[in-house]
Structures are given as C-alpha cells and as structure tokens.
C-alpha cells in the first residue's frame, strides 16, 4: 500500500526550491535609483537666456543649492544615479549638475551641465592646529595647579 506522505515530499521539495530560486534572483539584490533632482531634457529646453528666476523656479522647482558672487548668482540642480545592493552598499553610477546663471537683474545669462569628469578631486587636510589647554586632561589641569 502506498502512503500519501511519500508522494507529497518530492512536490514540496520542488516548490521550496522554486520559491528559494525566486528569492535569490540577481535583480532583487541590486536596485538602481536617482537621488536629488531628475534632470529631464524637456525641462532644460524650457530654460532660455533672459528668463526670470521666478520662471526658472516654476519650471524646475526650488534649487538644491544657490550661489551668489558679486552681481551674479546661480541655481544648482544635482542628479545622482546610484546602484544599491541589498546589503546597503551604495555605488555612484553618475552625477550630473545643472547650473543656471543669473545676472544682477535676476535674469538667466547662461546654463551649463557638468558631470563627474568635470569635477576636481579635493584632498582634505587632516592636520589640526594645536591650541593651549586643548590636549590636557582634567587630572593634568588639577595637578598643574599645585
């Protein structure tokens, strides 16, 4: 006589294998996403020389960063495309900066698109300037007063 549990075990094993195979697909381990402003070609074409800052804000939204130097100012919109693994490791795929430059009358004079290849590496200085008393501990301060 044949038992029912003997025929169910192979089917359950096959179903379990299929479920586990679906969980380990490579597409579920890596996600691609955009951080910041998504720069579209149509939005860039709408910005022309002579337009006001208000119109630029209406078309592109509020800038992520601004700069004012003398009579000129600029709006910066940054788009960063990243690839993130399921383990939390984030890798930058590309970074694009849309810069809109304005004159003293707050009218567009130029626009530019910059990418990672246009950037420059800046080394951060690790040295510290020593200051009097900063390196002394509380005990050292008490002992030096005697």
From TrEMBL:
GO biological process, one term: Gram-negative-bacterium-type cell outer membrane assembly
Keyword annotations: Cell outer membrane, Membrane, Signal
InterPro entries: BamE (IPR026592), BamE-like (IPR037873), BamE_dom (IPR007450)
Pfam families for the chain: BamE
GO molecular function: protein-macromolecule adaptor activity
GO cellular component: Bam protein complex
Outer membrane protein assembly factor BamE domain ranges (all copies): 36-109
Domain of life: Bacteria
Protein name: Outer membrane protein assembly factor BamE domain-containing protein
């Amino acid at each position: 006589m044949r038992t029912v549990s003997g025929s169910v075990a192979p089917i359950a094993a096959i179903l379990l294998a299929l479920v586990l195979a679906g969980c380990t697909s490579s597409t579920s381990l890596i996600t691609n996403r955009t951080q910041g402003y998504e720069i579209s070609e149509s939005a860039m074409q709408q910005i022309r020389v002579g337009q006001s800052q208000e119109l630029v804000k209406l078309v592109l939204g509020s800038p992520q960063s601004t700069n004012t130097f003398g009579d000129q100012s600029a709006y910066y919109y940054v788009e960063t495309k990243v690839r993130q693994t399921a383990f939390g490791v984030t890798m930058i795929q590309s970074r694009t900066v849309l810069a809109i430059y304005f004159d003293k009358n707050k009218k567009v004079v130029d626009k530019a698109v910059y990418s990672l290849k246009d950037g420059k590496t800046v080394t951060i200085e690790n040295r510290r300037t020593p200051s009097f008393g900063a390196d002394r501990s509380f005990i050292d301060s008490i002992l030096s007063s005697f």
